[in-house]
Amino acid sequence: MQNTKNIMDYDTVSLDDANSAVVIIDQTKLPAKTEIISLKTAQEIWDAIYLLKVRGAPAIGVAAAYGIYVLAKGIMADDYDSFYAEFKKQKDYLDSSRPTAVNLSWALNRMEQVVLKNANKSVAEIKQLLKEESVEIQEEDIRVCRAIGEYGLTLVKPGDGILTHCNAGKLATSKYGTATAPIYLGQERGYHFRVFADETRPLLQGARLTAFELQSSGVDVTLICDNMSATVMRNNWVDAVFVGCDRVAANGDTANKIGTSVVAAVAKLYHVPLYIAAPTSTIDLNTPTGNEIRIEQRKPEEVTEMWYQERMAPEGVKVFNPAFDVTDHELIAGIVTEYGIARAPYTESLREIFAKKNAAQKK
Ligand code: MRU
User: Fold this and answer.
1) Each residue of 301-312: pLDDT tens digit?
2) Catalytic residue IDs
3) Ligand 1 site, residue 258, Cβ cutoff 6 A
4) 205 lines ligand 1 (CB under 6 A)
5) Is residue 254 within 6 Å of ligand 1 at its C-beta?
6) pLDDT by residue (tens digit) across 58-108?
7) Quick check: 295 and 323 in contact, CB under 8 A?
């Protein structure tokens, strides 16, 4: 029987507690095939993150939280010290799967805090608390993306042209996406945005994922190659750029998918504001500037042969394949968080955002 389910009807990540598994859409197969896979072992979870079967900073965080819960559940030790030693080993292993998106270590550290703060409880109780925390991390992700959407929507008007790069959509989160959240909320309210999606070489997250999910949702989306963003901006077709992020440094410098900084420079040239949609879980005040962000380097084959019918570059050619770049804070018009929009100077405004967050959490 033909599968008539829309991609938006599937959870990007979910927990199958009965079978002790993390369930994900294998995003490497999209859009041709919607394949749902279950991850049970540390190796399977690590591989899924490393190979981008689950990707996008918030979704990586949720997958890691469910992943470490599933692994903790399987730890046989009854005494706290042995349990924690094994937990830490598994946590550090998952944390090594990708270096740039801070949500990975953010979620894993949050899970570790549950273990550390409950050392007086039984291992069975700690496992239950870990489950609750992982579910909360996912539910929070949905609330946060919606709030980013509401703030983002104040920056645009009906009929606007919006350009986005990579996939910071539903497939990168639990719902709404970050950069796409204003687009989806606008869609619900009849804003009729015209969206331009960069295809995003070399892994084509824009073509395979963003164009797919927006089109499946009925959004007016036009796919362009990465080298066409200047043309659509010069034509005055773009009123705002919204992109996601993998790590925002304390001064506002932002690591996101490779090519974002090119879009930002072009946007500046054509006076189009570029906004970073940033859950506070992706803002890392411990990293002072973009210079300290570790950028993931990936295999040369992603550039030389992937997606092509045959290899498209000479054998042995040198390849530089960073997965992310850093957009200088000077090129960013605003950082849209779930606690409001930070504006330059970001060193101060991001601290204010965290002060709001801390105050809200104390209530
Ligand atoms: O390598 P990827 O596909 O994980 O890169 C994803 C991005 O760069 C996204 O823009 C970022 O993680 C934000 S997702 C809401």
Assistant:
1) 999 999 999 999
2) 246
3) no
4) yes
5) no
6) 999 999 999 999 999 999 999 999 999 999 999 999 999 999 999 999 999
7) yes
